[in-house]
Amino acid sequence: MPQPVAVLGTGKIGEALLSGMIRAGWAPADLLVTTRRSERAAELRTRYGVDPVSNADAAKQADTLILAVKPQDMGRLLDELAPHITPDRLVISAAAGITTSFIEERLADSTPVVRVMPNTPVLVDEGMSVISAGSHATAAHLAHTEAIFGAVGKTLRVPETQQDACTALSGSGPAYFYYLVEAMTDAGILLGLPRDKAHDLIVQAAIGAAVMLRDSGEHPVKLRENVTSPAGTTINAIRELENHGVRAALIAALEAARDRSRELASGNNS
Ligand SMILES: NC(=O)C1=CN([C@@H]2O[C@H](COP(=O)(O)OP(=O)(O)OC[C@H]3O[C@@H](n4cnc5c(N)ncnc54)[C@H](O)[C@@H]3O)[C@@H](O)[C@H]2O)C=CC1
Ligand SMILES: O=C(O)[C@@H]1CCC=N1
């Protein structure tokens, strides 16, 4: 009999996890969800056959609590949960920036806490979830967390000191690729292609490149060199990317995302 898992805060990531767990074979009866809005509760009941409960009831009934509210809402949620959480529960936080010590300080002594940074491709079972143990989380807690998040993609354990960097790369990562697709689709329009064709061409180029990156065993530089013919088209595009400092812009962008994750941890939630 699986132990009940509760998802607290079923927005974009919470719902993506919930749907993934059901696809992976969790019975809706073993899943609890909480939400602030009654229309949302009705939606979740219809879509997944789950029964939305209060945060307090989720804390009392579930062995594993996945906190998927915004970092800005985490303090208030923990205040609400604290009287009901005993140290035999596992608390998993998916919130950017929020440290395990932030959570531990607000819950009963020795409550096990695991910090996870998933990303939205969990919706299509291609997520990446980066996992770190808090001070009371055991190997069994980490394995249980991997079983949950591994159902919707890959997982990677890192020391918590690397979580802000992983949030910048992996948590936010899909957004950068969507941004590139958007910009390259605009380029297609400029070059005279209809929007739908430009979109399809760039998306397929992205999928093909992603599969090559994953499966070819080649370094990205080699893969790019294979596309870049002497006096050909690609080198002209690469020269423009270099002229416009795109590599430096990407490095600065991810550094800014890392810094924001650190700020959220230090309580600057505005
Ligand atoms: N969207 C993303 O790509 C990723 C988000 N995250 C993290 O996941 C968390 C949630 O992000 P999203 O799903 O994007 O936000 P969201 O705004 O879509 O979802 C948060 C949900 O929590 C609900 N909520 C807030 N306070 C609540 C409470 N006290 N009780 C019950 N429900 C409550 C809100 O009504 C909302 O439905 C954030 O901490 C974010 O840093 C992590 C990885 C990726
Ligand atoms: O932008 C954010 O803060 C969240 C965390 C990682 C992805 N989205």
UniProtKB/TrEMBL annotation:
Enzyme category, top tier: oxidoreductase
Domain Pyrroline-5-carboxylate reductase dimerisation: 160-264
Entry-linked Pfam families: F420_oxidored, P5CR_dimer
PROSITE patterns: P5CR
Subcellular location: Cytoplasm
Domain of life the protein comes from: Bacteria
Official protein name in the record: Pyrroline-5-carboxylate reductase
